[in-house]
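ok trying this again, last paste got cut off
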Amino acid sequence: MKKVKGMRWWMIALVTCGLTLNYLARSSLATAAPTFEHELLITDKQYSYIVAAFQAAYMVVQPLAGYVLDILGTKIGFACFALIWALICMAHSLAGGWASLAIFRGLTGMFEAASIPSGLKASSEWFPAKERSIATGWFNIGSSIGALLAPPLVAWCVIHHNWRTAFVIIGGLGILWVGLWSMFYKHPRDQKHLSDEEREYIISGQEASYRTETREKPSVRAILANRSFWGIAIPRFLAEPAWQTFSFWIPLYMADVHHMNLKDIAMCAWLPFLTADLGCVVGGYLAPYFQKHFKVSLITSRKLVVVTGAICMIGPGCIGLASNPYTAIALFCLGGFAHQTLSGALFTLASDSFGKRDLATATGLAGMSGYLGATIFSLIVGVLTATMGYNPLFAALALFDIIGATVVWFTIRPSR
């Protein structure tokens, strides 16, 4: 059997492709919003209900999705969830109003909730602890690549066909990915193309909880009693509103405040997600850099990355001072970089603090906290944009992340 060099990187690339399609399905709604709002006579307030339906469903189901993944395993669990959300994405083409769109978005949120827990389980299976932040950074770029691809794809579909076509195409690509995942993803112990040297490198660098096989079910009570869980869940509650705002409101903001048309939005709305990709990768490499050059512990290196991202979030907090759309986009770009830098560190802290038995469940519970914050904030945006405008809301996002970084710094302690 031919051995493949660097097999762990091929596995994380497969995860990244899945995350890309997952977030492409999410972010396409925002780019299509100006078009379907006009076609279906949907107001900004009703659009906020559509966004909140996704976020609320994602929030409620993510702990359950994580629990199911811990029971079924990474390969089968991720494949099942991905197949269903791909089919539901295609069903968006049947929507006739804001209520039906909200239902489809809610169902999408339910089954897309397994994406981040699946990625973390895969990285914990395939990478030693010292490389885990790098692996997390690389698979997390899928979220921003998906958001980056959405504006040009949806704009092309609207110009040459209609907004419904975009969801059919994305759903079809999702089904194709499920086939590839089912064929190629295997645990390191079962991957025949993995060399003995790489297998030993992976296993010897993992914590004991990842090296041993266990059939124990995850304990939600034990997770909630863990101090580190709250050091992750509270900052995610405060940080997630920023990413959801960037993902769902940038096109409407640019149209409403700076009066940009669909083509102009398609030309620039993807840029913040390009810098978000950079944040994913840079954030992944920052932790080992801090550990090596500042002689800090593994956990402290992750916390320093969170602090770095929170400081950079001051930039998008000043969007209200932007006098033209190009300055606003530049500040959104800084926000995309900042958020994904600290977000990746929060994800990695979960894999540092929990073992294979309960990692996906803990990630799901923390994700529930994050999407609770995102849902509340989206509803606030939908109500207040007509009266207060966007500027105070952007300033609040920067403050949230600074508070979150403070919580991380003083709450999380080395677990091993």
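PB: full thing came through this time. The mean pLDDT is 86.
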